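Second attempt. The first submission of Anthraniloyl-CoA monooxygenase had a stray character pasted in from the spreadsheet, which I only caught after the job came back as garbage. Lesson logged: always re-copy from the clean sequence file. Corrected sequence (774 aa) follows.
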Amino acid sequence: MRIVCIGGGPAGLYFALLMKKQNPAHHVTVVERNRPFDTFGWGVVFSDATMQSMREWDPQTAATIEDAFNHWDDIELVFKGRKIRTTGHGFVGIGRKKMLNILQERCLELGVELVFEQDVQSDEEFADADLIIASDGVNSRIRARYESVFRPDMLMRPNRYIWLGTDKAFDAFTFDFQRTEHGWFQAHIYKFDDSTSTFIVETTEDVFNAHGIGEMDQDQSIAFCEKLFADTLDGSRLMSNARHLRGSAWLNFGRLICEKWSHFNGKSHVVLMGDSAHTAHFAIGSGTKLAIDDAIELTRQFNAFGHDAQSIPAVLDAYEEVRRVDVARIQNAARNAMEWFEVVGHRYADTLEPEQFMYSMLTRSQRISHENLRLRDKDWLEGYERWFAKQAGVEPAADGSVPPPMFTPYTVRGLTLRNRIVVSPMAMYSATDGVADDFHLVHLGARAMGGAALIFPEMTCTSPDARITPGCLGLWNDEQAEALKRIVDFVHGHTPAKIGIQLGHAGRKGSTKRGWEGTDQPLDEGNWPLLSASAIPYLPQSQVPRAMTREDMDRVVTDFVAATKRAAAAGFDILEIHAAHGYLLSSFLSPLTNQRDDDYGGSHENRARFPLEVFRAVREAWPQDRPISVRLSTTDWHEGGNTPEDAAIFAAMFREAGADLIDCSTGQVVTDDKPVYGRLWQTPMSDKIRNEVGVATIAVGAISEADHANSVIAAGRADLCAVARPHLADPSFVLHEAAKIGFSGVEWPKQYLSARSQYENNLARAAAEAAGRK
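This time the job returned cleanly.
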């Protein structure tokens, strides 16, 4: 085949040498606009895993790079006058120029044609090519030429950064955070040769402007950074090799995603690779990794389908299918890390102690978990666990051990929970006229014995017309209160768990069938009138609710207060107000469901007015020594709906009204929302509200193992973790997760103690067998 790589960066060069190595008959050309063996940039970073892949595909190149690179395991944090270091992280750093020179030399050895100082304007300059690799960078002319085909989405991020170098050699990947009178700056620093380190300085747009950096030239900008990071530089200077950039040389990062990566131009197949196809923020050092992995995967597909022009369409389809998944995963992790640095000042740096700040920074991408940190640096993590336990009031045992973060106690008002795991309210639709029966006793009792610190029945309705379905629990009469008290008494009498009550009103989502009969589908008969903020049905076939009048509001407030008093008398330990998921109170908060033009619609204050009326009345009726939480949909996942920024405003209002916790759920306000699912997918909203609003939070959403919960709690992204489906599948979820991570400090029911050792031994045996098979 005739192959032309436009752009002589890592993607183009590495693909060229791999293809030439696989089939020397290929005519492969790399066209680069710079001079031979000349490039710009400081050091690049990639992981040990990428290095291993390079060893497999071209050992000679890998060996040459390994001779030149700097490998380090340590990460050091400089923050608030402290230096904290942890090890075991496995990075590779090499000068960008050195790496490209190695790849260029290897290309020449294999017979790849290298053409320099040719500034390609169009792919049509290579009409004889079977395959054209558009590896011409983030500002790719080739991608721009076929923009309607590739459909690139470039999102410019708010932070400003400048890419510098220094002649000081750092022995760890160093993060230096410095506060000025206007806010925080951070430096990302790593050595890439014996005498030089990359030194990236980053800050927010507001801080950048407040210091007038945009008015500086490069020399003034560099002098500003040298003064700011003088202690870390210790007399060394900062250098720029971006003299071609005008002004201060500070940039905004652009996140690039393309809908399609390949195109047939009528003569040649054109495919995007590296930064021309996708970008990932430098916060996790993945740009070079993605470029190398692109080159490897495209070569792998040619090996699978055949090294001939006829195979190219199938190769490109398979290449894109495979790479799109991995790139999305890396971009998601990079986005998490990038967003962490974008909000680090006011969300974390101002409030967290250095120990927890370090943990939060290490886990910022959510790819590194609690147990992964233990594998990397057991001593550091155990030290951090001791620090965290001390903050929770737990002293080390005689052997120095402490409970993992999820098993530390938590106190709010007069309530102390023995650990941080909550059984979420989950709709069972099994009540009769709102009355709990033996099913509820067994269901909730089993989970109370299963190790969770706090359990909730499903949303309990404050009136007959507040129900979602005819099977919902209620608390509008004494019979219902007595049935619930029976469950409360069992939990308190037979387990160390606490039990809460979640009060709610279905609003426009009421009068529907039980979940297994047709979720959200209206009843065939026996319907009741519905209320909502506005007269908007939930589904096209749903009943149209009545927009609430002042009289309706007064009645609903009265119902909530009456249910609150019954819940207090029944002995519930905590009360939660359900103001999420499009139910009645949520329908006032969201602009998607609230189209009122009176004092209860429009602004945040107006939309929150009625939910706050309910909350304040409930807070007054609820015992002062018992806490109240509020469940919010912290984003509607829908254009024009509430965003996390809106949710933070509402959370602050509820905090000021006396809320002790915000239970951070999302969505379900409208049927055509577009949530982005994944592990811990709703935790970022909890993180934002806890650390920006200054109120304790409950995290929910795909928290399915101890490692997840420990990571969330230890990083300070939430104070409690609510777990739903895993508790349906396993009532003893918490006991079992404790055993899986080897924590023996959790209490089992005495009646079940004979099973404990067998369960733990079986886990140990299975782990030993798995290790033996490796």
